[in-house]
Give the backbone structure.
Amino acid sequence: MALLSKEDAKKILEKAVGFSKADGISAQLSGAERGNIRYARNSVTTSGEDSNLSLGVNSFFGKKSGSATINEFDDASIEKVVRRAEELAKLAPENPEFMEPLGPQTYGAESKTFSDATAKITPEYRAQAAADSINPAVPKQVTAAGYLQDSRGFTSIMNNKGLYAYNKQTSVDFTVTMRTNDGTGSGWAAQDLNDVSKLTAGMTSKVAIDKALMSREAKAIEPGKYTVILEPSAAADLIRLMLNMNARTADEGRSFLSKKGGGTKLGEKLVDERVNIYTDPWNDEAPASPWTPDGLPRQKMDLIKNGVVSNLFYDRYWASQKNVAPIPFPGNAIMQGGNASLEDMIKDTKRGVLVTRFWYIRPVDPQTLLFTGLTRDGTFFIENGKLKHPIKNFRFNESPIIMLNNLEALGKPVRAVTSEGGGPGGGQNLLIPMMKIRDFTFTSLSDAV
Amino acid sequence: MKRRDFIQIAGMGAAGAMMLPLPGFSAVDEARLLEPIIDVATKKKLADVALNTAKQMGATYTDVRIGRYLNQFVTTREKKVQGVVNTESFGVGIRVIANGTWGFAATNDVTPEGMKKTAERAVVIAKANSKFQKEPVKLAATPSYGEVSWKTPIIKNGFEVPVKDKVDLLLKANDNALQKGASFVNSAILLVNEQKYFASSEGSYIDQDVHRIFPTFTVTMIDRQSGSFKNRNSFGSPVGMGYEYLDGKAEDKIKGPGDVILYNKSYDILEDASMAGDQVKQMIAAKSVEPGKYDLVLEPSHMWLTIHESVGHPTELDRVLGYEANYAGTSFLTLDKWQSKNFKFGSPIVNFKADKLQPGSLGAVGYDDEGVKCKEWDLIKDGTLVNYQAIRDQVNIIGQKESHGCCYSQSWADVQFQRMANVSLQPGKDQLTPEQLISSVDKGIYIVKEGSFSIDQQRYNFQFGGVLFFEIKNGKIAGMLKDVAYQANTNEFWSSCAAICDSRDYRLGGAFNDGKGQPSQSNAVSHGSATARFNGVSVINTGRTI
């Protein structure tokens, strides 16, 4: 019920737009069915499913707008929600930044965000995935804690100017933490996917078990500047932080992309020339919706090209102020990689640290994009081209901009899972390579396992 | 804590105004926020339908939470209103024990039929989940309270104050900061009202009306010449009060060291915005800190977050036991440390109490979300770990008979679980003011208001920033510093606590959106303290050039 076809969604939206008596109206109809299973201490703790279908209406008179939502779809209910939005709009204060809805747009090819296999996930599938994760842990004296959630849904928008857009999407997120029963080792692995047929809960769990066993008896080494090899999750955690390339904050002087003396760093070299980051909604591994929530089409576009800032993002209001075309916030990001394998990177490292993932990353200084956080669930010392031993976790204070100026080597990009979920756009899909970085700043030691 | 969530809701993030209603919340008009939509007698009748249905289906315990959750967010920047959003969410969550296992189901169909169907679904889920259960749920006994009620003791209901008044206040505050030369100001007032009805198969019927308010702003100063900018956040706190929090009464103002005005039980947003406009300029011009060891003097509007992360979270029993291992993390305060009865968490002057009682706190309610009357209890006594935070199905694990009363759910649609109570550092027993405390410090830093924060998954190693940093030299404030962050090990940090000011300086700070669980739920919590001194803490310089 929550997953309406393009035609069925259109019928409901047409009714809503038809009821409008305001200067204009935008309506959004979206639905999702979600399921999850959670386990800890080698046992399932909670599981659930929910489903939601809702119609949101935004009506406006001049620069005064009001929004209302409803989850009933008979004609009377649809009319009621439109009238309520209109009443709210009349009462609302004027918003000088209000933009009238867009006219019809062209959105390019069909999106790749939906997978039939994911849409068919059952509670039994989830229970089996949990069992596949827990079962190999028990004989290894390891305790599993994990979470699997999946969703299938659609989003559609229509307005009085004739714009209509529809996209359906699925997602699967699987994370697992394996801790040795004596509490001295911990490992983590994860998969974020659109297509569940690529999910390997058992194999992914074994990676986490191996990391847990390998990370026991960690030794302390001095904090300081180290060459680091960041696995894709660790790299993605820092790369995503520089993707908030908002033109307005840069123009206003309150961004890492603002320039000393005024202006922005658009067109200037920001990081190593081997850094190339782009967005492409039709990427097979990390697809995104081909349009934004306000209906702007997304396109394949460079963000950083050969280390130079290629584009900043302009919302429609700021674009109108600056007399440029709007450039929407991207739905995904892909960083081009190189050919280096993990083995190659280790072999070429005289003294360094291999990082599985980071944790609790928070901003310290927005001007330099300085962030702090910690390593977690598998941190290892590399010496003379060999992985030597596990080490105690470190706290870092580092900026992704400084980090990408200290680039040594890149691996092959893969779909990466960030540690606390969600990029600045609220969960962009990321394709990020493993990377080797010199002079990465670790500032203290942590006893946490 | 997921402050990013809050920042997005408040439209205060650099990305600009993103105003999305919370999931499951519908936008409504202002008048709707004041309409009582259902009376207590009707709620009791409906709850009884669910209680009886679940019992007939074989449940050995049932609780029903009929909840109406109202929010209002008013956001502005400079001279513009960015958004006024009112939301309402109404529904019921039913939790049962069947075959010794929890089951939960929720619906927004709050009718006898909806109650019946949802109670049935909860029992079916409990029975299905019982296949995976290793040990049956053991619930600590709690008295049956009969029909009772509780209400946040507010003086002015924020929802009754016209939106226009809130907009005018925020625009005036923005103007005050702009008059002082600030480049940008974002400001917001957030209001929450939880109308919660709890009924259990043990005979409690509890009606509660909970209010919270959070006025806040960020004043930004840009120095184009040097390419630098600084943000000075509001000194207001989220509180469990009505609109009277914005009265800014003279008796609630404290003139702190460094000529900073601090606020206790009410807040003067206009004065604070004006002060922020001045201070943000000084923040840009401040001296960059020399890294090294300093004696830190931490003021309550800063210290609450250090307490929250380093004391509140590691004393949560579900983290200790490993239930949060894959998300929020575990805890260094393992059961053996507690069992030893002599684990030194901090210096002998360090005493922490947990509570859900303090007037004006975000955690204050009469009863928690599983019908347990709220109370106060010791966590750290004379520096030693003595207890955890635990709920009805957990206290048996630590050999106790009575729940601590800190069970909470963010809405009717989510299952309740153990959430942090208010956790507060008790004031010093001897008379001591912040000025007296500073006068004995040779080389130190006085820090005002919370800033950047990060802590590891077992709560050992942390790093905190702040908003204002004042250098202390030979017992005197010697000007403002910038680029300051301190790093420590929780245990070493609290062991270095050398002095705590007395109760005259005790104040609350807090968080509107503390995240835990998968799917994640949000909780509001306060932390009290008086200004305190910590000796020899490691300070780093966070200044960089890109």
